[in-house]
């Protein structure tokens, strides 16, 4: 995770327009046998009539006012065109390429040390949860930050569905793996698939949020459709995208970044301005949008919710 010089929103408008969204809708129309209609009607009218995502009707969800921001919401255009999603490349401008990711059918598996192993489609999962919107800060380890209106449901809801055994101490999460649509996964030096992990206490902390939407709409592919995590007190790399599997285990998961460079990206990765990354300071962050440098807060400002989980953990690098 290197800081790139060029910013995502400096893209010319023509490049930022996700052409592949158009291509994807074309595919849907063709599958629906609407080729003739496509030929006859103005393209915009046809495209507007076709929902891009079958869950679109669930949004916007009611905002939960408990989680407030100390800064303006990042403009949607920035948050959805300045991304880290290494499956589609290591540059920030992967939004267009990510449109190749098929998000239906999408199967989520819950397995490991649980009473109720489950395999279900994303739309069945959506039927079993109540969606809400939350405003969260999002702080990348690269020292840029955003403020995002996520929609989703508490991770605790999924934990309760699984009914973990008392011996389960961690949740390991895994992203899809398909090098045919995700060219980054052809880069053999990365330890695919993307893996992340949290403790059971973290998974059931009220802030741990499974995201299915963003800005009052289904979460776009480049931001981790159809299911990603948001852990606002940790560096952004813990917030794994496009999840296909949750495994309850008693072994601490070794994450993608930890495997790649364990001395820089650890298991805990809690935000702390006083603990520099080995190659740069974490004291401040650049807010996408205003581009201002603002002080970084311990636990990204969420200490009142999470600090207690770490008070008895000794001899570990909690902040890297
Ligand atoms: N999840 C997967 N599967 N692949 C990734 O490359 N990048 C992480 C995280 N989740 C990443 C991922 C990093 S480094 C960050 S900062 C956030 O996603 C970025 O989320 P955003 O693009 O929605 O801002």
- CATH homologous superfamily assignment of the largest domain: Oxidoreductase, molybdopterin-binding domain
Structural class: alpha+beta
Q: In angstroms, what separates the terminal alpha carbons?
A: 14 Å
What proportion of the residues is helical, as a percent range? Answer: 10-25%
Discrete helix count: 11
CATH architecture identity of the largest domain = Alpha-Beta Complex
Order of helices and strands: HHHHHHEEHEEHEEHEEEEHEEH
- If you average the pLDDT, what whole number results? 88
CA gyration radius, whole angstroms: 20 Å
* The first-level CATH class name of the largest domain: Alpha Beta
Largest sheet properties: 7 strands, mixed
- Bound molecule types: ligand MTE
- Percentage of β-strand residues: 15-25%
Total tally of structural domains: 2
Secondary structure: number of strands: 12
The gross shape turns out to be: globular
- CATH-assigned fold name of the largest domain: Sulfite Oxidase, Chain A, domain 2
Provide the low-confidence segments as ranges.
Answer: 3-40
Protein described:
The chain has 320 residues and is α+β, with helices and mostly antiparallel strands. The chain folds into two domains: 15-50, no CATH class; 53-310, Sulfite Oxidase, Chain A, domain 2, CATH 3.90.420.10. 21% of the residues lie in helices and 20% in strands. It is built from eleven helices and twelve strands. The chain has helices at residues 13-16, 19-31, 35-40, 43-49, 76-79, 95-98, 122-127, 155-162, 200-203, 256-261, 303-306, and strands spanning 107-112, 118-121, 132-139, 144-154, 170-175, 195-199, 209-214, 217-218, 228-230, 243-249, 284-287, 293-295. The radius of gyration is 20 Å and the shape is globular. The two termini are 14 Å apart. The model is unreliable at 3-40 (pLDDT under 50). Ligand MTE binds at residues 1, 83-87, 140, 175, 194, 223-224, 236-237, 239-242.
